[in-house]
Amino acid sequence: MMMVQARAAIGRLARRCAGAAALGLLMGAGAVLPVVAQAPGSPTLAAIRARGQVVCGVQSNNPPFSLPDSRGVWRGMDVDSCRALAAAIFGDAEKAVIRPVTGMTRFPAVQSGDIDVLYGSTTWTTTRETQLGLVFAAANYYSGQGFLVRRSLGVTRLAQLDGATICVPPGSTTEVILQEWFRANRLSFQPILIDDPNEIIGAFLSGRCDVYTRDMTGLSGFRMTQPKPDDFLLLPENITMEPLGAWIRKGDDQWLDIVRWTQFALVWAEQHGVTAATVDNPGPSPSSDVRRLLGAGDIGPTMGLDRRWAANAIRAVGHYGEVWERNAAPYGLARGLNRLWDQGGLMYSPPLR
Q1: Residue 40 pLDDT grade (very low, low, confident, very high; cuts 50, 70, 90)
Q2: Do the beta carbons of residue 15 and residue 1 sit within 8 Å?
Q3: Which terminus of the chain is less hemmed in, N or C, by CB atoms within 10 Å?
Q4: Alpha-carbon distance 124 to 84, whole Å?
Q5: Coil, helix or strand for 288?
């Protein structure tokens, strides 16, 4: 009788504890039961599936991150990150919707749910995570803030910008860092505050401001789209090192997993040589790492996705290196910090297992 009562008490206590692992500990080390994690309900994923599309916020006219081509089709690093997400969720990259945002509208857009994920060359900072109700999900680019001038200005180094007029979006980290750097170096400048990226470009090209500042990569991309790129000089110094990438609303852990690990999957694929062309035929004896990437095991179902989620994303856009070659390399950009970790860069993926 006492044995039955003891077992009943153990059962009640186990049910109050967090799952089968707690029960295993109560019954002894040899009786730990396997735990199969189930993806909790995600309001963001539910909304995406209900509308049949994933909506991503990006900046307009922002090569190599986001720029409509001559037919109005969006291209760029951020665009491919969004297409990979759509493929991971639906098996169809065409279910990605690109929505332009500005420096002032981007955070309200993701906070309100108008977009599901924000890219837009948005830097990872402390206060954005602690004050805006957002979380940085994954880096798809490492860059730093730079400065572009017209060669006719006769400036070759930052120290020569004392008193210059500088176009900058208000309320951005670009503006804050700019103020701090000039103050620290006892230089002055006149800010020309413009929110819309296209208006900033127009002001710079018209001579309203002497300097155009933003991330170095964006400046390089802009310079290469001009009819006479050599009319402009990208100054050699940059004043920050910034991770750029995806932002989502806090509190939706399943959506965080999907956005984060889809980006990691593209990097993992490059690390293991899986391309868009080989994803469906990886060879006769793929490694266990490759098999998991392509659908073995339960990684996808733990996030509420198909087992082939990562394979679908890779088939749609290729691995990270392919995304780079398609979007950044045509602008003459060296990979630099965006090389894989074992090639001297910062790009890496935690293990997919």
Answers
A1: low
A2: no
A3: N
A4: 21
A5: helix
